[in-house]
Amino acid sequence: MMKTKFTKMMAIFVMLLMIVPIGYGNVKAAITPSSTAMITVSGIKGDTNVELYKVIGVDVDSTTNTPKNPMYLWHPDVMEWVKAYDNAHGTNYIAKTGDIHNAVTDEFNGSMDTAKQDEFWQTMAKDIRNGTLDLGVTASQKSDGSVAFPNSNMGGYLVLATPEPSAPGKYSSRIYKPTTAILTPTFDNGVWNLKNTTVSLKSSDGTIAKTIDDETVEVGQKLTYTISATIPAYAPDVENRYVNVGDKFPEGLTYNKDVKVYADEACTTQLTTGFTKYETPTADATFSVRFNDAFVAAHGGEMVYLRYTGTVNKNVEYALINTAFVNGPFNYGGSTQVVARSYGFILHKVGENNANLQGAEFEVKKKNGSEALAFIKMADGEYRLAEASETGKTTVLTTGASGTLQVEGIATGEFILKETKAPNGGYVLPNGEITLTLIDSEPNGMLDAGSGVTKTGSIQLGEEVKINDIILEFTVINGKGFDLPVTGGMGTMLFTILGLGLMIGAATLVITMRKKESNLH
Which UniProt keywords apply (predicted)? Predict the structure, then answer.
């Protein structure tokens, strides 16, 4: 946005630091301390008020008509603000050089990080608008398309633009980014020259946007939402202006009644006045914030930011869709949605001849987790991750009559599934673990191809693993025990000995009875 112009200015500044000590006695000068040029601002869309704020001056020697060292000086009205900014952000943009207390340092140059530049100018713009920085407007014009500011003194200017619709009952939701206009002398062909400059405003015509800190979620997880909404600039004839900003939660998400309003995108400057919170849910909104007439009048063409949280509850759905909205007079409004997604898996337990096995028991842990996850039984073989405060939780998940175990309400990641009890019917308990990998990198509600199932130990998996959108489906096979073969044991030998014993006993009995009969005769 401002980098090209500002880079040129600061590159010149660094060059001048090397040139100035040499002296200017032989330099032909085409500038004087009071030299001026034209600043043209383009990129204006619709009725817009454009303001220039001079924040940096160029120090030119009145005798030699050449720049001094240091060349750039902060405007006296922004000196203390820059010092405070340095203290708050750990920067060094202002310094004392000899008797000069407001020199712009070489740290504030064109090679500085773009994000740092944006933060500096956006913070200054915000403080000018809210009155924290009392800096008078150097020049101001209302126009559409482009506007020229002739006879502008040398230096660096902050350019702020605010929509100001003139037609009755009209509004604008356009937001202009702060930019800079740089009028600094350049040394060309032995002469210091001051040339006209043109800057183009960057803007967007959005009404509302929303972000979420995590889009793959599980039951009990707290989510942080941020809404950025435009406060429209209304025409002067509009009375009783207001803007409503809010959100509508789905049943599976609990609003924590903690919305806060901020003036900046980083949500560090909290606002506490100019609005009313409504946190009792209605048919149309879970909560809303209503900005009053005075706030809308003072902040038209600016952004406000709402930050709040919601917790995924027991009514979780695979897609949690909530809708943020903004509205105001004359049909101003818009809405936006974000989606938080939960995931799950289906396990089919089968035995011999692919028979469904009821009663197999499992526990689930997150990978590297020490505790088994707690669930709520929803139906036969169907479980949902439990909220922390719920009663009736269990860590034992049992396959149902159809041999199926279905688990819902978990996020993406890796999970360890372990069978802790084999089903009845002579089936044995396998050793090892099953690892489930759920990946949705976009996320778009479709598990990625990298999602899958692996196993260790004696566990047997079916050949096919299905990915059904956000559900991972697979089969685990159980086997029965078997008898080991016996060789050289006591089994047949014992029967042989017993048989021989019986035969010997019978023979002995017969012989004895015959002897008794012989004696009788």
Answer: Cell wall, Membrane, Peptidoglycan-anchor, Secreted, Signal, Transmembrane, Transmembrane helix
